[in-house]
Amino acid sequence: MPASGASPAAAHGGGVPRESTLLGMPRNMALASLVIVLTQTGLIVGLLVANRRRKRLAREQGERLRFEQILTEISGDLVEASVETLDNAICHALEKVRVMMEFQSCMLFEHVRDTQVVRILYHTDAAVREAIARREAEIPMPWLCAQFQYRKAIPLAHALQDLPADAREEQDYVRVKNIKSALIIPLHSTDGTTHGVSFCTGVAYREWSDTVISQLHALGDVLSSSVSRHRAEMELRLSEERFSKAFHASPSAMVIFRARDETILDVNESWERQFGYTYAEAAGHLPEELGIYRSEKERLRLGSLVDTVGSLRNHEITLRTRTEREVVAILSLETISIHDEACYIAIFHDVTDQRRVEEMRQSMVHVSRLALVGELTASIAHEINQPLGAILSNAEAAEMLMETENPPLDDIRQILADIRKDDLRASQVIRHIRTLVRRAPLRLLPVQVNEVVLDVLKLLSTDAQRRGIILHGDLAADEPEISADRVHLQQVLINLIVNAMDAMKSNGTTIPIVDVRTWREGPHGVSVSVRDHGHGIPEDRLPQIFESFFTTKVEGMGLGLAMARSIIEAHRGSIAARNLAEGGAMFTFTLPSGNGNGAGTRNATIGRSS
Fold this sequence. Notes:
Elements: H1 8-11, E1 21-22, E2 25-26, H2 27-80, H3 86-101, E3 105-111, E4 117-123, H4 126-133, E5 138-140, H5 142-147, E6 154-156, H6 159-162, H7 168-177, E7 181-188, E8 194-201, H8 210-249, E9 253-258, E10 264-267, H9 269-275, H10 279-282, H11 296-309, E11 312-320, E12 326-338, E13 341-350, H12 352-375, H13 377-402, H14 409-437, E14 445-448, H15 449-459, H16 461-467, E15 470-476, E16 481-484, H17 486-503, E17 513-520, E18 525-531, H18 560-570, E19 574-579, E20 585-592, E21 601-606
Parallel strand pairs: 15-17
Antiparallel strand pairs: 1-2, 3-4, 3-8, 4-5, 6-7, 7-8, 9-10, 9-13, 11-12, 12-13, 14-16, 15-21, 17-18, 18-20, 19-20
Helix pairs in contact: 2-3, 2-8, 13-14, 15-17, 17-18
């Protein structure tokens, strides 16, 4: 029997005592259960976290997809919008983003170049849109404008706190608008304008993630591109309107035609009046179909010239109207692009009347020359009779010598040489007269002024002797050279000198001298003066002295001085007349000179008083 008080184990013969239990379970089993419970708890927590993360990622993915979908819709709306509807499309786009992102306001603005001012272009607030319509939506923001150069987004989670101390204007704007958070993104458009977009919250603060910044930056780029396109289209439309108004209002005839086949695309009203065809009759046709060109050869020559040069400036051409009337026009042609197709715009300035006036002027010049020749008949006869008389005398002397038994051949040879010399002299006089009376256009060539003066003085010497007048030349020693038409310049001098001699015809002057002087006028001019010692020009008639058909002579036509002024002005010179205090009048003209320097004068006196 076991002893009293012994344990059951002892009663069975002893052994190791059992481990304590937790809730009646063995310790090992309890620990295992605890590990299992903790593991399951961790798995559950992990699943919850993963699920929450998955839901957040799904939400973010959904928001991204929704934003991308909205951005796609906005892009499509803006692309399809016309110039008239683009403003509403941009406002609608900003409002759609504002609602989706739960912003207080969204706006698109631009930095006014060379200022510290931003101009609001579009805004989701109605009051601001009214200010935009009144052109009062400009805000000074110097700090913000300075940040545009960095081209980086400016996230302001706590707008008032995140703005630096020197951004006072921006801080005031945030206070007035009660802005909690803001995101500002600078944008640089293709036309060089600096745009920007801003998104603001007014209820709660907001952190701006990189994803959101990237999304809103993409939106800003779309809006900025649309604004630039809108402006470009508006400027193009305004340019086309201005061009159309100028084209149709131009007093010069204008036509637009395709470069590849010369088909007429448009004509203005002046072209219709000048050529006699309406727009409906001309459009779609070729110029040769309308008979505009005088000949096919002329059309090909003009086409070749255009193909070679690509444009024309002041090209004179003769064209035909619907009534076969010929029109002289100055043509200028330039290449333009219409709907991406190369075209030409041709401008015709009608100079038919001017050319007729020019022909009349040339005819008047010719008549004036003939009149001068008539007045110089005595001088011409004297110039020709002298060599002819010498030829006759020498011929008679040669005949007498030939009749002798032993003719002196050396003397005969000398006589023949004199005859040749006198013949050449007479021939030269004839050629000079023919040149003077010939009708020819203005030809500018290098001319020695002194030589022209001496030729004229020699030509007029006989007339001066007959009148008892001395022609005196006081000529520059450095032989000034000008670019002029020799014959036209001679005509001017003849007119002035003959007028000077006429002025002293019946005044009883004691100084019967006409002074002709040449000198250099500064570094680039040559002046010639003709002075008489007559009574001068009446002061009340002096302003009219160069007008056509105005004369102080009873028998005068009033053409000589008008022709003289016309010739001098054609040489890019000037002519003037004045009375002298000591008596008489002086006519002076100045012409552009060539090169040459020097000083001094040389004298020449031709003719004697009788």
